[in-house]
Hints:
GO terms for molecular function: nucleic acid binding; zinc ion binding. The chain is of the alpha+beta class. It has 18 helices and 13 strands.
Amino acid sequence: MEVTTNLSLTWIVVGKKILRDICNGVVAFTNDGVGGPTQAEKSKGKSKEKDKQGGTSQEKAVLLVLGCYMRRGLQMQAVGTLKHMKTNTLGMKKGCKACLRDFLGLYGAHMKGPYPVQILTAVGLDSNNGIYPLAHAIVEIENYESWKWFFECLGDDLDLHTMSNFTFVSDRKKGLLQAVSQLFPCSEQRFCLRHIHENMKKQWRTKEYKDHLWDCATATIVLEFNHYMHQFSLYDKLAYEWLKSIPPQHWAKIHFTRRATTYMMLNNFCEVFNGKLVDRRDKPIISCLEFIREYMMKRICNVLKVQQKCVGPLTPTSTKIMEKNEAAAIKYIAEWCGDEKYQVKGPWNDQHAVDMQERVCSYKKWELTGIPCIHVIFVLYNKADHAECVHKIHTYVHKLHWLQSWKIAYGYKLEPIKGRALWPRSKCPMHITPPPHRNQLRRPKKKRRQSMEEKSQSKSESHSQRSDAGPSEIHDHGPHGSGKLTRKFVSVTCSKCGNKGHNSRTCKGQRGT
């Protein structure tokens, strides 16, 4: 790694040198001696060169009108300034409909450019339980009006109306629930269980509370859910009342409907997509949108390569679930009750009723996921043993889990876009500027805000490293890996009076005896 030393560099020279050195593998400057470039000059020069390479935010706002985004699904509401903008493609809309799953995850994140707007995303699930990004919008601020406008655009894309039975999962962002309730009152709203746990950890932090929460949320039988809720009330009455204040139809699996064909309780698949945008959120708006478009284009091609290697009637994820259920179904016993109804007993004194004609099991997993549970699979084994006519086992799986359905969803691809020099001229007004922004006080934070669980994990890891390391290792690396020792237990001595417990700034003038 080469390091250069230079004196008397202005920010213009520094910016050009940074760009040239990045290409040549030179990664750092030294500031030895008077007249060298300061950190501010380096930052200013780097930002100026980035503007030259990628364009400033003002130029990007005008290019949005000139570009072919206007011809490929860009929607914009602007009166002098750019306020709302949503992008998607015809291929992604058709592919989302072909997924046969009325389920969307909603998420909002901050952009970190000179005009820190926010990006709203809608992500679906494909037949292999992978993410399927549908649409994203850049708005001035995340509030009720922004979410309402975003849902109106989604309704036009997916042909949703007031009586649509769609399912949305979110982390209860600002104004999101009100917008969904107003535009789609018949839809099902699920709350991310991890965010509920994060809110719970503000008052109750131990692992026992997390276990009680997950036991209540994952129960698939009404009596089992009531039992776990009662156990939680005996453990902590206040925490139970807090959890009870959240309607269980939003977070408990037993109260979910079978519309979405999934019992997904988390919003982490949206965070997977937003995690791809971390390195591009500080870029100008066109660069960020181009990155998202190219990412989705590459992802579709990567999934197509995986599909070419798949063999079988079901998707890889569904195949693994079926193999696991088939292996566990051997331990069960089925009794025929007439017609197409069966009673299935398990090795742990569990007993469930299965109706093959209605395709219903009292365990509810078959209805929630569309994949036969252990009890249904053993009923099929029992019918085959008695020489009854039984269809192939994959025919009892919902159609969305078939490999052919997965291929149809990814058969809609994104069209390539020409370079900026070939973009056609638009008749829209040219005087469009970024939204007004007022700079906040203090230095802007670039580091992501950690959750309570991440903080506790980092503390436990640092504690284990500190206990395993020797004294010399602790001195070299520091208790938190920062290279410095903590001053938590250091006694401070005042330079004025000589007493301990305070410094010269807070000294009241007393002299030591």
